[in-house]
Structure formats: structure tokens, C-alpha cells
Amino acid sequence: MPCDDLLTAATRACLSVDLLPSWYDDDWVVLEREQFHQLWLHALEAMCERLIVARRYGEAVDAALAVVCTEPLRESAQQALIRAYLAAGNRFDACRQYGGYRRILDDEVGLEPPRALHDLLPAQYRRQAIRRLDAPDRSSRTVSATGRDNGRVRV
Questions:
Q1: Is residue 55 within 8 Å of 4, Cβ to Cβ?
Q2: Residue 24: which pLDDT band, with cuts at 50, 70 and 90?
């Protein structure tokens, strides 16, 4: 599955442009803008998966991070990012991402990560990620998906 030109600067620039950004009054524009936003999210997630298959792990992480930064509670984006970290052999980053997502998801909506995300990491890694988050040394803070400083550790 070739993807030599999949994540070029031009592709990312095209996907990052807002649809009719100065139009606010028409309902149809809001719907079209949301449809374009969803298309952008799905395209980057699919791009991440194709880049993993092509063993272009750094670019796969970049594609998934673009979605996670835009929609931090999006489960499919978190799954794509954790898969990219694991494919690259970065278990620590995968654990950190899982633990951070678990915390934000609990803080924002009171949910646990979905089973599919849970099953990406072996149990020992999940336990380590959770233990790190619950450690009393809170040397740094993280900002929740809504922008509120919640005093939680970023691991």
C-alpha cells in the first residue's frame, strides 16, 4: 500500500483550512463546516493507519497527534496515536498517552476508555500508566479538554 506523497506539507495545509471561515449567519455553512471537519478527522486517522503499514512511524504519530490536539476526547484518534507509538516501539509514550487520556476522559465526562483502547496495551503497561498518574509527586499540570487547569499530572 504505497503512500509516498500521503503526508506532504501541501496535503496537511489543504486539510487544515477552515471552510468559509468568515461566514457565520447561515445554518447550511455550519453544517458544511462540521462535515468538512469530520472528513478532515477521518482522513488524518486513515492516513495514520496507512503510514503505520508503510513503517513511517514518525509521520503516523504526527497525523494522529493533529487529530488528538483538535479533538482530545475522540476515541478513534487516541487509538490511532497509541497504535502508532506501539508500532514505533515507544511503549512509554503509548502508556503515557493511555494514562493521560484515561484521566481526561474521567475528568471531563466520567467515563473509562473503551475496551478496544484498553486492549491495545498489555495489562502491566496499563497498571504502570495508572500508577504514574496516581503518584503523589505532581510536578507538572495538564489542561483538560475544555481548557480548565485541573492540577493533574501530565505523564
A1: no
A2: low
Backbone torsions φ then ψ of 4, nearest 5 degrees = -60, -35
The per-residue pLDDT for range 68-115, each reduced to its tens digit, is 999 999 999 999 999 999 999 999 999 999 999 999 999 999 999 998
φ, ψ dihedrals at 87, nearest 5°:
-60, -35
Residue identified by cell 496535503 is 11
From the CB of residue 111, how many other CB atoms can be counted at a distance below 10 Å?
11
- Listed range (11-20, 100-109, 112-121) with the worst mean pLDDT: 11-20
Domain ranges of the chain: 1-88, 90-155
- Per DSSP, the three-state class of 150 is strand
Alpha helices (H) along 1-155:
9-16, 27-53, 57-70, 75-87, 91-109, 115-118, 123-134
Alpha carbon distance 130, 101 (integer Å): 11
Q: Which of 8-12, 78-82, 137-141 has the highest mean pLDDT?
A: 78-82
- Cα angle, residue 64 at apex, residues 76 and 55 outer, rounded to 5°: 110
